[in-house]
Amino acid sequence: MSRTGKLPINIPTGVTVTLNNNNVEVKGPKGTINQQFDKSVILKLSDGVLSVEPADDSRYSAAMHGTVRSIIYGLVEGVGKPFSKNLEIHGVGQKAELSAGVLKLHLGYSHPIFYKIPEGINITITDGTKLKVEGVSKQLVGQVAARIKHYRKVEPYKGKGVRIIGEFVRRLEGKKSAK
Question: How far is 18 from 1, CA to CA, in rounded Å?
Fold first, then answer.
């Protein structure tokens, strides 16, 4: 049995969890989120504590035990305090603009890149080069940050591109002239 899966999830005040078969609905001050799980785990809610148990002794149930518990814990955390990732754009003339739910990225290409922001995600831009991606779903925040980062990966010689703040980028030495 999973050590992570055995841990109970304490539901904080202001957050409500509703179970309907294996559909979990979590409501909190920052939003509402639904997640459907398969029948490999059994979810039990009592006195503000949610527990996850494997449905049988199969290997798949044992594997999903800790995974489902971690996902539900992330849902409960996210509706109380949203998850966020901070991105930074490096390079001359490279910037981001926000208008009507569309992120416009100028990343050194001959054309701007338009990215439609998914529902449940909030992006704020400071200084034109620093982006903050926020949302109640940890998975969706990470996916949006990865998608934006993918548009212009950091190149190793000058360090131009989009990076997550705090991320290590290995820099390479350029060519040297022979004398």
Answer: 25
**Would you list the DSSP string of 66-82?**
HHHHHHHHHHHHHHHS-
| Burial (CB count within 10 angstroms: exposed 0-12, middle 13-18, buried 19+), residue 109 | exposed
The residue among 122, 113, 170 whose CA lies nearest residue 145 is: 122
The answer to whether 65 touches 52, Cβ cutoff 8 Å, is yes
Judged against a pLDDT cut of 70, whether residue 1 lies above it is answered with no
How confident is the model over 10-26, as a mean pLDDT?
90
Rounded to the nearest angstrom, the gap between the alpha carbon of residue 80 and the centroid of all alpha carbons in its chain is: 15
Question: Are the C-beta atoms of residues 83 and 122 closer than 8 Å to each other?
Answer: no
User: How far from chain centre, in Å, is Cα 146?
Assistant: 9
If we measure between CA atoms, which residue out of 140, 145, 139 comes closest to residue 166?
145
The whole model's pTM is what?
0.84
d(CA 131, CA 112): 17
Please, what are the domains in the chain? 3-80 (3.90.930.12), 83-164 (3.90.930.12)
Residue range 76-101: average pLDDT? Answer: 92
